[in-house]
Amino acid sequence: MPWSLTVGHVYGTAVRIHVTFLLFLVWIWVAYYRQGGTGAAWEGVAFVALLFFCVLLHEFGHIFAARRYGVKTPEVTLWPFGGIARLERIPEKPSEELVVAIAGPLVNVAIAVLLLLYLGGNVGVEHIENIENPQMGLVAKLAAANIFLVVFNLIPAFPMDGGRVLRALLALKMSHAQATQTAASIGQGLAVMLGILGIFGNPMLIIIAVFVFLAATGEAGQVQMKQAAQGLLVQDAMITHFETLGPQASVGDAAEALIRTTQKEFPIVDGAGHLRGVLTRDAMIHALQAKGPASSVIEAMQGDVPTVGARAPLDRALKQITESGAPVVGVVDPSGKLIGLLSAENVGEMMMLRAAQPDARFGPWAKRPAG
Ligand SMILES: [Zn+2]
Fold first, then answer.
1. Per 3-state DSSP, what percentage of the chain is helix, strand, and coil (rounded to 5)?
2. Distance, CA 215 to ligand 1 centroid (Å)?
């Protein structure tokens, strides 16, 4: 994820902080400084830092629960609105998703209980309202914040944990895709209500509402994409008309091809028809600036481009594109010759066509040799 700094690794998960979170800390410092000077400013920042440590523990609740089901978590990022752990995949079994989603809020329940027990043991619950000791005040505020985190995260809308809990519960009764669609619609409805509340109340709510609405739309779209790809083969979606460059071609030749066509990625193919690599528009421009038009495309290309067979399932190839981060995937025949290209973009185009004509079976995007 761009715009975030890695601050460390915990059990193979990179802990990252988004730049906007650092700006948020600065904003907190300034806001408290204007109220109560330097002392108050640092106290405010200390509270927010402790609070986000609780958020991080919450994320590790999800991460360790996911690990139980063999799902790895490459990274967790702290944003001003909370933490997001990027799971390698969401467990599709509803009961497993339920456990993973609920594990985070349960961590905050545990923290709140521990803090309240500590407070109760030290000052007596009846005195909590008028605590003089500033250290006790911080503990009480932190306990209250953890309770808020539990309530906020259980709002039944994506990307909050409540949205996933809702989807998992719905998925016990219907298909995963249907459950996502229903949960996303409920989330969008909630977002609209939050937005209206925000207009009359706290403007911060409007920002949260927009964010929740977009997240719900994105979640539904991802599942639609996966569904569209299901049951289709790579050959149904691959690009078959494209220009290739030989290994001896220069970056200048590539630049001419870029102008001549609408292609943005050019496969480098050797005499035997085998894919050697892919030259992207960005790499081409970079090579032109750094080494000039006479330099070789072999030096500028990306070499380790994944390949799939034309009759491989499209959803598996789609996964390969997202996981490898490669601009395109090469489609090869059984002898290893390049016969097509597949990009997230053209799979997306096919998805739009299918959405426009859900029952079409003989469209150009769904043709398949009989048998
Ligand atoms: Zn969570």
1. 60, 15, 25
2. 14
Q: Rounded to whole angstroms, how far apart are CA atoms 133 and 230?
A: 61
From 50, 53, 48, 8, select the one nearest 24 (Cα to Cα): 48
The low-confidence residues of the chain, meaning pLDDT below 70, are: 1-2, 81, 92, 121-136, 222-231, 351-352, 354-371
Distance 104 CA to ligand 1 centre (A): 5
Which pLDDT belongs to residue 371? 37
Strand partners, 16: 6, 77
Q: Judge if pTM exceeds 0.90.
A: no
**2 C-alpha to ligand 1 centroid (Å):** 21
H/E element, 268: strand 265-269
In the chain, what are the domain boundaries?
1-154, 159-229, 234-356
Cα 118 to ligand 1 centroid, rounded to whole Å: 25
Cα gap 166→160, rounded to integer Å: 10
Cα distances (Å, whole numbers) of residue 227 to 46, 177, 315, 321: 46, 8, 8, 16
Question: Which pLDDT belongs to residue 365?
Answer: 40
Burial class (CB in 10 A: 0-12, 13-18, 19+), 57: middle
Q: Taken in order 164, 168, 169, 173, is the CA torsion positive or negative?
A: positive
CATH classification number, 234-356, choose in 3.40.50.170, 2.30.22.10, 3.10.580.10, 3.40.800.10: 3.10.580.10
**Confidence at residue 114, expressed as pLDDT on a 0 to 100 scale:** 93
Cis peptide before 334 (omega within 30 of 0): no
Three-state SS at 305 = coil
pLDDT in tens, 146-185: 998 898 888 888 778 898 899 899 988 887 778 888 888 8
* 113 C-alpha to ligand 1 centroid (Å): 18
Residue appearing with tokens 């398949």: 368
Ligand 1 center to residue 80 CA distance, Å?
14
Question: Could you tell me the distance, in angstroms and rounded to a whole number, from the CA of residue 283 to the centre of ligand 1?
Answer: 38
Q: How high is the pLDDT of residue 268?
A: 92
Give the C-alpha separation, 12 to 74, whole Å. 7
Task: Give the pLDDT confidence score for residue 210 in this predicted structure.
Answer: 81
CA of 106 to the centre of ligand 1 (A): 9
pLDDT at 362: 37
